[in-house]
Amino acid sequence: MAEWFGSTVVATGRLPLFCFFVAFVSGFLLIRMSVRMIRAGVRWWPGNLRPGGLHIHHVVFGVALMMVGGVAALLITDRQGPAVAAAAALFGLGAALVLDEFALILHLRDVYWTEQGRASVDAVFVAVALTGLLLTGFRPFGWEWVQSAGPGGGWQAGAQAGLLTLTLVNLVGSVVSLLKGKIWTGLTGVFVPAISVVAAVRLAVPGSPWARWRYPAGSAKLAQAVRRDLRLRRPLIKAKIRVQELIAGRHDLEPPSAPRPGPAPGDPPGEAPVLSRAV
After folding, report:
1. What CA dihedral angle connects 173, 178, 186 and 249, to 10 degrees?
2. How many CA atoms lie within 13 Å of 198's alpha carbon, on the beta-carbon side?
3. How far apart are the first and last CA of the chain?
4. Which UniProt keywords apply (predicted)?
5. d(C-alpha 229, C-alpha 203), whole Å
6. Cα Rg, the chain, nearest whole Å
7. How far apart are CA 35 and CA 30, in angstroms?
8. What distance in Å separates the CA atoms of residue 141 and residue 146, rounded to the nearest whole number?
9. Which 3 state secondary structure label does DSSP give 253?
10. Helix (H, G, I), strand (E, B) or coil at 38
11. What is the DSSP annotation of 175-232?
């Protein structure tokens, strides 16, 4: 095991990335265990940190750890020693705490245990998958060409131009796939060519930015996209949610209501504006 670790991780310069990955996964599992214990009301487990009644979310500690680890990594000149590995681990731990509250940052509300809070778990899963691919040696398509590109002539220049074109086409396919709501195929296509291009030419997910822009209400494309979503994508989402709930807990609370605005200038004293509600 030690020999494999030395040849696969240390000798290839992936020790900082390995430390980041381990700290990230461990930090996410530990913080999820903590918040589930708090939610279950376990008496002997420390509760939320509320000095003076102010709830300090763990994203605050995550940002601090990321700053310390990131700045330390910039200052350390030995890129293979234990010091940069420790800095990478600090950065990974902080990133786990931040992404675990990604939904809080996105919605600017505490939606941790609501349906909207699943966005945090999705963000963590994406980060784990991408880091795992990088750790096992996968690199974005065209990365080797970017690293070794140099002046050349004849067939070498033609080959470089062809590879550059393929890389750009693959990148455009990944962007279109993401806009069509196909997160996993779009990200996987960055590493494996052609996957994102195939996903880009297929129908978009209903509710995605592409569907809102290109599929008018009542159109045949929208109806077909909805049918395909119900038949193929929804069962996969249900399976994914079951796995997420096993790891991260159930997101079953009602989202908090938006704060009601105060009276506008010129309103009679003691009267608040009436909020319109769509039927």
Report:
1. 180
2. 8
3. 63
4. Membrane, Transmembrane, Transmembrane helix
5. 10
6. 24
7. 9
8. 10
9. strand
10. helix
11. HHHHHTT-HHHHHHHHHSTTHHHHHHHSPPPTTSHHHHHH--TT-HHHHHHHHHIIII
Distance from C-alpha of 5 to C-alpha of 30, rounded to nearest angstrom: 25
pLDDT attached to residue 137: 85
Give me the torsion for CA of 178, 181, 185, 190, rounded to 10°: 10
| Two structure tokens written together for 111 | 């939606």
Query: What Cα–Cα distance (Å) separates residue 242 from each residue in 179, 226, 237?
Result: 26, 22, 9
Asked if 84 and 13 count as a contact pair (C-beta separation under 8 A), the reply is no
Nearest to 20 by CA among 58, 69, 62, 57: 69
Helix crossing, 234-248 with 15-39: angle to 10°?
A: 80
Of 234, 208, 238, the C-alpha closest to 222 is 208
- Residues paired with 114 in a beta bridge: 253
Q: Which of the residue ranges 47-51, 142-146, 193-197, 218-222 would you say has the lowest mean pLDDT?
A: 142-146
Question: Residue with structure tokens 């599992």?
Answer: 29
Contact 25, 99 (CB under 8 A): no
pTM, full prediction: 0.80
Average pLDDT, the chain: 85
